[in-house]
Design brief:
The chain is mainly α and about 525 residues long. It is built from 20 helices and 2 strands. Strand 1 and strand 2 form a beta hairpin. The longest helix is centred in the C-terminal third of the chain and has 46 residues. The C terminus is likely disordered.
């Protein structure tokens, strides 16, 4: 190749779309509810099904790249992703959109491990810092700018364009990938672990489904005798069987034994999961807070995140240069600490009457933290990987982030709901003191009921009995809005403690990441069998 950097551009275009689509839908939820005449649960499934389809197959698609060549698997995934994006944009019913998002997630799962696999093949270990920094910058910027781009498109051209935007980007990436990416093929026959694939898919599928939708089913029955908690238990059991199955050395294993012989790879994956948990867990209460409490529309709330995106991009580029002079572990721990500090600042500053711009410093600090982590963490996880383990390692590394994100979304959502069940009634009781006694008890009851339904985000407050006087009814509506704003803010502030705790744990695991010396990959502690050129 004349320059591997040209090929890197095509890889980044593919990866940008994947990461963008993981967050871009959030701000479009109100528009989808109206245009598709959908229920809130259906629109939530638009995001959930993409997450499911993108997470579950990652271990398998990473290994498929090792067996059939990363270029083939990436191109198949890209075509699938683009076709599904067109289907999403043309959907006129919620059911059609959910099905299209599932196919889109499968395409993303096929592409994601191959992008990182190509970087480790295109660049030698001692020259891999800069391209991995670019890859990390793309990941960070796309994740954070998803809501920004989504808000602009929804406001001006319609929610359909959050999916149709993929077509020009993806077509350019497809042409360049087909023309410029080398077609590496394994020189020997690599088997495929069907038993391991079934155990991993079923286990991850059950676990992710249960966690992602547990709150919707109130952690009870899903259908017939199947409940949420038994389904999660089944997922954990199947994953345990998968680990036991993988412990016996086989050439076709989805998790080759040598992959975890280097402790740095293990610590990097746990840290990656903590990062995915924290970023997802931070955004969920924050986005609802700025729209439902501060009253920002989708465009304004997305633009509020723009400084965070710019800060993440600048920090990622700084990390690329810093890897030459600063130990990667130092950058990772500093970044995790910065994200934790930014989250704490946001929690402290969040009040029902906070001016939105007051939140910008906390967002910028959090963005800097995210930007500092991606590049050195990816470099540490992939340093010195032999060719026959690259695809499997990429699948594991990306799966750890996705699983962390699912756990962050599920647990943060659960804590937020639990917090609302306590904080909103408490706020209602405080505000009820200014009402005549005959209205106070019913006011508290109606506010409490509204806190357990979607009406809590509508800004209209609970329904008021028709026999109440107009002046009392108007006063009740005002107090209801204020009570919900105070209750939700208190619940959101408490919920943000969880991502901070997980980030501190991530820093502890990151301390186990060792500096990787330049030179021969044998120093990484991994077996050095080479398959393919």
């Amino acid at each position: 190749m004349r320059s591997p950097w040209v090929a890197l551009g095509a890889l980044c275009a593919c990866f940008f779309m994947i990461m963008l689509d993981s967050t871009i839908v959030t701000v479009a939820i109100p528009a989808m509810l109206t245009d598709l005449n959908a229920t809130l649960n259906q629109v939530i499934w638009v995001n959930s099904v993409y997450l499911l389809a993108n997470t579950v197959p990652l271990l398998i698609t990473g290994r498929l790249g090792d067996r059939y060549g990363p270029k083939r698997v990436l191109l198949v995934g890209l075509v699938l992703f683009l076709g599904a994006s067109l289907w999403c944009g043309l959907s006129t019913t919620a059911g059609s959109l959910i099905a299209a998002r599932a196919v889109q997630g499968l395409g993303a799962a096929a592409m994601t491990p191959q992008t990182l696999s190509f970087i480790t093949r295109l660049f030698p270990a001692e020259k891999r810092g800069a391209p991995i920094a670019v890859w990390g910058a793309v990941a960070g910027i796309a994740t954070i700018t998803g809501p920004v781009v989504g808000g602009l498109l929804v406001q001006h051209v319609g929610w359909q364009w959050i999916f149709l935007l993929n077509l020009p980007i993806g077509l350019v990436g497809l042409v360049f990938a087909a023309a410029l990416l080398p077609n590496w093929q394994p020189s020997g026959k690599i088997g495929f672990d069907l038993t391991g694939a079934l155990l991993a898919s079923a286990g991850l599928g059950a676990l992710v489904f249960g966690l992602q939708n547990g709150q919707h089913y109130h952690w009870g029955t899903i259908v017939g005798p199947v409940g949420v908690l038994p389904l999660i238990g089944l997922g954990l059991l199947l994953l345990g069987l998968f680990v036991l199955w993988q412990r016996k050395p086989r050439p076709a294993n989805l998790l080759p034994v040598g992959l975890f012989s280097n402790p740095t790879f293990s610590f990097a994956n746990v840290t990656h999961g903590a990062l995915g948990f924290a970023t997802t867990g931070m955004f969920l209460p924050l986005v609802i807070y700025v729209q439902s409490v501060l009253g920002l529309d989708p465009l304004a709330s997305s633009l509020l995140c723009a400084p965070m995106a710019f800060a993440a991009g600048a920090a990622a580029l700084f990390a690329a240069r810093g890897l030459r002079r600063v130990e990667g572990r130092t950058l990772i721990m500093t970044g995790l600490g910065g994200l934790a500090l930014g989250t704490i600042v946001l929690a402290v500053l969040a009040e029902p009457d906070t001016e939105p711009l007051v939140l910008v410093p906390g967002l910028v600090v959090a963005g800097i933290g995210i930007g500092l982590v991606f590049s050195p963490l990816t470099a540490a996880a992939t340093y010195g990987l032999p060719n026959h383990l690259v695809g499997a390692a990429s699948g594991v590394f990306n799966t750890s982030r996705q699983i962390g994100g699912v756990l962050g979304s599920a647990t943060t959502g659960l804590l937020l709901q639990v917090g609302l069940s306590f904080s909103v009634p408490a706020a209602a009781r405080d505000y009820a003191r200014v009402l005549p006694p005959r209205y106070a008890d019913e006011f508290v009851e109606r506010i409490t009921a509204a806190a357990n339904t979607a009406s809590q985000f509508g800004g209209q407050g609970p329904a008021v009995p028709s026999d109440w006087s107009p002046s009392i009814a108007e006063r009740v509506r005002e107090l209801a809005t204020d009570a919900f704003a105070l209750g939700f803010t208190n619940a959101a502030k408490a919920t943000l403690v969880l991502p901070v705790v997980v980030l501190v744990l991530g820093m502890v695991f990151a301390a186990g990441i060792r500096a990787q010396p330049t030179g021969n990959a044998k120093k990484s502690g991994l077996p050095q069998e080479r398959v393919g050129p």
